[in-house]
Amino acid sequence: MTERAGPGPLRRLVVLRHAKSARPEGVTDHERPLAPRGRRDAPAAGRALAEADRLPDLALCFTAVRARRTWELAAAQWGTPPPVRHDPRLYHADVPELLDVVHGAPAEAGTLLLVGHNPGLEDLVLTLAGDGLDDTLDRVRATFPTSAIAVLSWRGAAWRDLTPGAALLTSLTVPRGGRRQPARDA
What we know:
alpha/beta; seven-stranded mixed β-sheet; two-stranded antiparallel sheet; 23% strand
């Protein structure tokens, strides 16, 4: 089984936690840049998505510098990046706020990429995943590190139909500077 049963087309929500950020003195949380490791890991995340054929039709990115830069470096690995919406509601969002943003995505987007940060993203993945392939759920419960990519699959007519427990967590990948852990994907 590669996705949750239900009416409608197959949809994928790809959740990408921003790459490792720096904490320079005197810089606000919103303006924190990527650390050197983050600048290596973000392109690796883009390559991992391309290799797994998980390129999005639309990206939703929170507005902090570390998320915007993660998006830019990841998307630069693709021939033609999809449109991106930088949504201030994603900054420090909890699950209901994240779901509200996802529910507003256009129905024609079959694969949606959400770029943000924890703890919201990890909580969202665990809330939406009714099940997971192999040990993916246990791995997310243990840690959802920077640059982690979780892929949730489900069937539905529109994004507003995505509900807690409706998706199958098909993979969890953690790209690291050109190397990545093996994808556990169906």
